[in-house]
Amino acid sequence: MIRYAEATIESFPIAGSFTISRGSKTSADVVVCTIREGGNAGRGECVPYRRYGETIESVMAEINAILPMVVEGMERSVLQSLMKPGAARNAVDCALWDLEAKKNGLTVMEAMGLSIARPLVTAYTISLGSPEEMAAQTAKWAHRKLLKVKVGTEDDESRIRAVRAAAPDSAIVIDANEGWTVDNLTHHLNVSAECGIGLIEQPLPAGQDELLARIPHPVPICADESAHETEGLELLRDRYDAINIKLDKAGGLTEALKMKNRARELGYEVMVGCMVGTSLAMAPAVLLAQDADFVDLDGPLLLARDRTPGLVYDASFVLPPAPALWG
User: Can you give the residue ranges of the Mandelate racemase/muconate lactonizing enzyme C-terminal domain (predicted)?
Assistant: First the structure.
């Protein structure tokens, strides 16, 4: 059966702006890989991330370089050895999962061995701003069960306290995006513990996090920028209590599943997270996250518009994807 494949660029406006310690963005610029065979089409979406040296152009180049082999019938298992972890491999890998499911008359859920996929409580992200701005943002979403709060400044105590006061009943994850320092780390950890924060993501820069092995963790600490793939997870065990698995970091659902299983073997808690993308990017992650301890798949909620059909978000929950979207 003849295959056709292509990569395309799409842009989706963000509702307002999305701000973390490294800067702000007003649109989600994504790359979609589509692979067609017969009457079936598989799709995968990725979000290039400059923090990891990726651009739209570099990711398009990576995908276009592999597509001739995909058209010739390359299987998903081979992809892992031909492309490095990252956004480009994610788009191709997820497109192949989707295509395989459609060709075989099975859902990806069934191919993964899941008997049922359930709705998941997902975090909603509060962008970085002044304490007053963040408190106002939080108040609008204080009805949600789980909030993820972007921090990463030299003085985040006032932000943490303002957010907790605005959402006294919500579980809260703090994401410092590598923005804390050796000098303020312990203070911010203690404030977080006092405020009942449930998890702290990547407080120190990747590669400069040795201190985490030598100090108490009054709040569990999660590796994000420090953890990209399965290899090397054991080397982080003395520093981190949890691992944030993102398809765009791992390079697709295939590697992400291996990464999750290895993290469990090593005793980590597991978060499944995302970049700011559409429902097409979130769909495989919803299946990956079925047994996760923390779920952060709110990308479409941050957009001014999403794909149609998209994922269904109901109060604090995200529902499993319909096959018309993915899988």
Answer: 131-222
Tokens linked to 196:
């009942």
What string of H, E and C letters represents the secondary structure of 185-246? HHHHHHHHHHCCCCEEECCCCCCCCHHHHCCCCCCCEEECCCCCCCCCHHHHCCCCCEEEEC
For 36-80, the pLDDT digits (tens) are: 999 999 999 999 999 999 999 999 999 999 999 999 999 899 999
Q: What is the pLDDT of residue 1?
A: 64
Instruction: Please tell me the distance from the alpha carbon of residue 153 to that of residue 24, in angstroms, as a whole number.
Output: 14
Q: Which domains, ranges and CATH numbers included, belong to the chain?
A: 3-108 (3.30.390.10), 120-318 (3.20.20.120)
Rg (CA), the chain: 19
Dist CA 209 CA 157 (whole Å): 21
What are the beta bridge partners of residue 294? 271
> What span, in angstroms and rounded, lies between the C-alpha atoms of 96 and 102?
10
Q: Are 44 and 278 in contact (CB under 8 A)?
A: no
Strands 242-245 and 124-126: unpaired
Residue positions annotated with a catalytic role: 150, 246
Could you give the 3-state DSSP secondary structure of residue 119?
A: coil
Helices (H) and strands (E) in the chain, counts: 10, 14
| Residues whose CB is less than 8 angstroms from the CB of residue 155 and which lie 6 or more positions away in sequence, other chains included | 184
- Which 8-state DSSP code applies to residue 106? -
24 pLDDT above the threshold of 90? no
Long-range contact list for 115-119, CB < 8 A, 24+ apart? 117/286, 117/287, 117/290, 117/320, 118/290, 118/320, 119/314, 119/317, 119/318, 119/319, 119/320
| Global pTM exceeds 0.70 | yes
Please say whether the beta carbons of 271 and 293 come within 8 A. Answer: yes
Residue with tokens 């590669």: 207
